TrEMBL record:
Originating species: Aurantiacibacter xanthus
Protein name: OmpH family outer membrane protein
Domain of life: Bacteria
Pfam families documented for this protein: OmpH
Gene Ontology biological process terms in this record: protein stabilization
Family of the protein in this entry: Belongs to the Skp family.
């Protein structure tokens, strides 16, 4: 069973996406304005602040990472023999389907319980990851705007909205430079009582309802 944390997934983003060509804006739009494309997840993952946070997390949460790895190895040692027995029983001349189903359910339950246990151990790191991302995202909009204005860009798109573009439309490096200048580092340990933005928004929406008042959209 492999531990997949948010930090590991984010760190696995393709670095090459910073310089790879993107989809192009429609020709009519290009005629009227200068268009650029920015891959925001790639910019975040390659930022100095994010990379520094990844390194700091390895030290700050070393105990949790070690605990998770030790527990993962123990769970794997428990599951492997069951998997071997299941494969052997399934290859028998006349396998007992009821017994096979019971074995499969036992293995699946162990895997699910094990993953839940690992997620709980790694919860402080997931919380840290959310805190790091939120700090960077708060500065990202200003970085995009500054890079666009410096390049004379009047329209910024994400790669998902277009089909092809040559590299002249790629604003990733410019945005990354602006972000690195504005935010060279971030904190990896959230303050006491901090919750991610999504949870804060849910709490704000739930508060009026609890008081018998309609929730506002915040717009």
């Amino acid at each position: 069973m492999k531990i997949m944390t948010k930090a590991a997934l984010a760190a696995g983003l393709a670095i090459a996406s910073l310089t790879a060509p993107f989809a192009a804006a429609p020709a009519m739009a290009q005629a009227a304005q200068k268009v650029a494309i920015v891959n925001l997840p790639a910019v975040i993952a390659n930022s100095t602040a994010y990379q520094g946070a990844q390194t700091a997390q390895q030290t700050t949460y070393a105990a949790q990472l070690q605990q998770a790895e030790t527990r993962r190895a123990a769970l794997q040692a428990q599951i492997d023999p069951l998997m071997t027995a299941f494969q052997t029983a399934r290859q028998a001349a006349n396998p007992d389907q009821a017994a096979l189903q019971q074995q499969a359910q036992q293995i699946q339950q162990l895997q699910q319980n094990g993953q839940a246990e690992l997620n709980q151990i790694l919860a402080p790191i997931s919380r840290s990851e959310a805190y790091v991302n939120e700090q960077i995202e708060e500065r990202l909009g200003a970085a995009v705007q500054a890079a666009a204005q410096a390049a004379g860009v009047t329209l910024v798109l994400s790669p998902d909205t277009v089909l092809w573009a040559d590299n002249s439309h790629n604003l990733n490096e410019a945005v990354l430079n602006q972000l690195n200048t504005a935010l060279p580092s971030v904190q990896v340990t959230p303050p006491e009582g901090w919750v991610p933005r999504e949870m804060r928004q849910q709490q704000q929406q739930a508060a009026p309802a609890a008081q018998g008042q309609p929730a506002t959209s915040g717009r």
